[in-house]
Fold these 4 entries.
Entry 1:
Amino acid sequence: MNKRHFLHAAASALAASATAAPAFAARKSAAPAGPALLTVTGEISAPNRGPLDHALDQMMHKQKLEFDRARVFDFASLAALPAVEIRPTLEYDGKRHALRGPLLADVMRAAGADAQAEGYVLRAIDGYAVMVSREDAQKYRFIVATHLDGKPMALGGLGPLWAVYEADRFPEMAARPVSERFGLCPWGIYHIAVRRG
C-alpha cells in the first residue's frame, strides 16, 4: 500500500469514527423503550429525559420533586446491568429470600452520578424517602432489586423495584431485631436524587 493510499484510508476511517461517536453517545443516552420505572435526578451527567412535567409527572409533582433533567431506566435497561443476588432474612415473614438486581453503585454509574456525591435520597411510591450515604451504599452493597425468589416483583407488593441490602452479612445490622434492619431500604422505589454535600 502506498503512503498516499494509506493516509487517505486513515483519514476516511477517522472521519467515520468521528461521525459514529455522536451516534453512539445518542444511542447510549436515549430514553428507554419501555415505561420508566426509576428516575434518577440531581448531580448526574448522563440524562436521557428533560425536566419534570408538572401536568404529566403527577406523582413526582405531588411529592414536590423538581428537576431539569433526569436519567430514566425501564425494566430492560436495569436488567441489562450486571445482576447480583443476595439472600437477606426479611422482616415481613422472618425467612430468607433471594433478591436479584444490579448494584445501586452500577445504576448510579450508568446515570453518570457525581463520584463525589454525598449520597442518594431514595424515594418510594408511597412518599417514604431516606438518605443513604454513598459510603453506606457501597459498604452494604445495596442493590436495586428487580426479582424476588426468581420472579419479577409486582407493583402492590415490594416492587417493582426495591433498594435493599443483605443485612445478615453485616454484624452491626444482624445484631438488630429483623424489624429494625431495613429502615434504609424503601420498597416500591421509583426515584433517586443524587446529592452533593
Entry 2:
Amino acid sequence: MHNQKEHRATTPTAPGPLASFARFVLFGGGVGLLSSSAVTLLADTMPWTLANAVITVASTVLCTELHARFTFNTGKRPGRHEHWQSAGSAAAAYVVTCTAMFLLHLFQTSGTLTEQIVYLGASALAGLGRFLFLRLYTFAAGHRSRTPATTPPPKASLTPPPLTVLATA
C-alpha cells in the first residue's frame, strides 16, 4: 500500500494593516502619481473631467490587479466581483477629485502646480477611504476564497464497485 499525501489548497496569509497600508501607498500612490501627470497631459487635448475619467478607469484596473496580488496578498487574480467593488470605490474617488477641482476653479484661477497639489490632496483623501473599503470588505480574509481551504473528499458513489475475480493457480 503506498502513501497518499493530503492535498490542500493553501490560502496566503494576509499582511497586517500597516504592511498592507504601506503596499497600498506604494502601488496606489505610484499609479496615482503617474495618473496625475497623465490627467494633466490629456487635459490639454480634451476636457479635464473626461481626461480624469479615462485615467481613472485605466488606473483602477491596474491597481485592482496590484492590490489583489501584492497589497492584500489574496494569492489570485481579482474576479469580476472584486473589479466591480474596486470600480465603485474608484467612482467615489472620482467624485472627490472632480469636486475638489471644481471648487478650486470656482474660487481661484490656478496654474498647473496648484491643480496638482489640490488633485493629489483629494486623491490621497479618497485613497484612504478606498484602502479601508478594499481591506475591510473587498479583499478581507472572509471574502478571499469562495472555495474551501482543503480539497473535499470524493463523493460516495451509488454504484457498487466492480466485482473482481481472483484467479487461482
Entry 3:
Amino acid sequence: MRMHVAGLFEQKVKPSEVARQLRVSLKSADQWHQLWPHGGVQALACRGPSGSRCRLLPRCLQELVAYLEQGPAAHGWIEDQVWTAARVATLMGRRFHVSCSVPGATRLMHRLGFSPQVPARRVAERDEQAVTAWKEATWAEVKEPGRPAAATSASRTRQASPVGRPGHALGGGAAAPRR
C-alpha cells in the first residue's frame, strides 16, 4: 500500500483524493503527505499498533490463556461463570503482579480470542415460577391503566383538533362564553 500511496503523491494527487481512493481518513492521508517528501517510501512504512505495548511476557500470556480456560470458579469467582474484564484485570494483578485497566483487559481478551461477558444481576435464590405467577396474578391488578387513545394528541404544542368530537365534549362545538 505504501508504494501505491507514494505513486499517487508522485503524480501530484491531493491528500483528499488519496484518502477517498484508499478509503482512509483525511488525517492519515495528510500525515502521509507530510512524511513522504522527507523520507520517501520508507517514511510511509507502518510503525505497528499504537498505544503501550503489553507488559506480559509471551510465557505469561500463555499462562493467562490457561487460567481463562479453567473458568472463573477456579480462581475464586463462584457467583457465575463469566469472565468480565474487571475480573481478568484482577487476575492479572494477582498472578503476574501487573496492573491493567478494564479497557486494557478487554483489548487483551479480544487479542487472545476471548470476549468479556456481562453477568446477569440476579439473586441466586430467585424462583422463576413465583416471579411468573406474580406477574400474571398481581401485576395486572397493580398496573395503572393507560389513557385512552382518543384523549391524547400527537402534538406537544397544540391540543387535539376538535373535529369529530361530540358537541358535549370538552372543546367541541362553539366556545363557551367566559365569565
Entry 4:
Amino acid sequence: MTALAQEAPESAHEAPEAPEEVPEMPRPEELDEVLWQAWKDMELPEGYRAEIVEGFIEVSPTGRASHARIINRLREALARHLEGSEYSAQHDWNVIHDRKPWVPDLIVVPREDEEFLTEDGLGLTAEAIQLVVEVVSPGRNHQQRDRERKRRAYATAGIPVYVIIDDYDNHGTVTVLTSPSPKEGLYAASTRVPYGTDAEIPEGPAKGFVITEAVTGPRLD
C-alpha cells in the first residue's frame, strides 16, 4: 500500500515577508535638474515652445493671428517709446531663472545684453528683464498659466513689471502688476482696466508708456 504525502502546514511562527521599499522621493533641487536636462534635450516641431512652470514642462503652440497682431502692435509702440534709450522691446527669447526657462510674448531688456546671456547661450537671465508681457491664449490651462502660475513665477524671479493682456477676462482687460515680492511669489500692486481704457506703465524704462485700444483692439462683445 502506497502512503500519500501531505504538504506540511505553514508554521505559525514563519516570518512575514518584508514590505517593499518605497523609493525615496527626489529632492526639489534634483527634480529641477531632471526637468532642466529634459527641457534642453527636447526637439519640438516648428510653431511650438516649451517652458518649465511650477515643476512641470509645458508645451504650447504659438498664438493665433489675433494673438500675434497684439504682440506686434505692442512691440512697435514700445520700440517708439524706448527709442534713444538703453532699452529695447524683444520677443522669442528664453528667459531663464534657477534652471526654469520661460518664453514670454514680449520683454523689455537692455540693448547691450551680453552680460545677461546665460553661460550656455540658451537665453537671458531674469535679471535682465525690466518688463514682461503675456497675451493670454484660449483654453482654461493657458489662461490659468498666464494669470496665476506665471504671475507667481515672474514675481519669484523679481521681474519688476508684468503686463497681462487678456481677451478672455470679461470683455478684455489689461492688468499691470508691479512691486514683486520674490519670497512670497506675488506682486503687491495691481491695476486692471477694460479694453478701451488706457493702461499706463508706472515705472522702469517703459514708464509713461500707455497701452491703448490701438494695441488691444476695442472692447470685445
